């Protein structure tokens, strides 16, 4: 099953509620929330307060991608606020076993994220106990960046690693994915799309088009 996770980073925050309702009507499976602290990545977004407000009105699972230093300290708050999937980067979480275990103990799905410049072998060990892996196909920090083509080969290799180490793991891909190139990353299970949805005039319609494309990819 291929899952669509619109990333609200590219939404119009003035109309955030309306736009989330639109992606839900269009067939979104998860809502992807990018948390940035201005240290690990050169941008600042939002914290648990926003997760909590979305949680009150939205029944879909909330997929919280943490791009922050000291994630262990904030994970409990995000899960309390309603995060269902929580992912942390391998690059700044050296005690990845402890961090993923903390997420699981608090009842959420635990994901490990890997940047485009990091060798896939860096997450080999974590694949044994993660629930999902998020492969970045842009350098994290901003929406609307260009897809890094090399990610296609990395995805193939990651799929092989997952198949041999722990086939239950879901592969999520994030960055520069659009209706036009989604086919190239069809080996993933979860597709994060920000500007490819929210830069369109009709957010609901665009979500539906992408969802239909994913359903057709599943049939292949
Ligand atoms: C980038 C974020 C992405 C971002 C994707 O750091 O992790 O989730 O919102 O946006 P697009 O789809 O526009 O590349
Ligand atoms: Zn993200």
Plain-language structure description:
The chain is of the alpha/beta class and 220 residues long. It has helices at residues 16-26, 48-57, 71-81, 96-105, 151-165, 195-198, 203-219, and strands at 3-6, 31-36, 62-67, 85-89, 109-114, 132-136, 170-174, 190-193. It has a single domain (3-218), classed as Aldolase class I (TIM Barrel). Helix content is 35%, strand content 19%. An eight-stranded parallel sheet has the order 1-8-7-6-5-4-3-2. Helix 3 links the parallel strand 3 (62-67) and strand 4. It is globular and about 40 Å long. Residues 7, 9-10, 32, 34, 65, 138, 140-141, 143-145, 174-177, 192-196 line the site of D-xylitol-5-phosphate.
CATH architecture: Alpha-Beta Barrel
Largest sheet: 8 strands, parallel
| Averaged pLDDT | 98
Query: How many alpha or pi helices?
Result: 7
Bound molecules: D-xylitol-5-phosphate, zinc ion
Element-by-element helix/strand order: EHEHEHEHEEHEEHH
Q: Superfamily at the CATH H level?
A: Aldolase class I
CATH class: Alpha Beta
Number of structural domains: 1
Residue ranges: pLDDT <50 for 5 or more in a row? Answer: none
The portion of residues forming beta strands comes to: 15-25%
* CA-atom Rg in angstroms: 16 Å
| Share of residues in helices | 25-40%
Identify the strand order in the major beta sheet: 1-8-7-6-5-4-3-2
Q: How many beta-strand runs?
A: 8
Which structural class is indicated by helix and strand composition?
Answer: alpha/beta
Which fold name is given in CATH as the topology?
TIM Barrel
Shape: globular
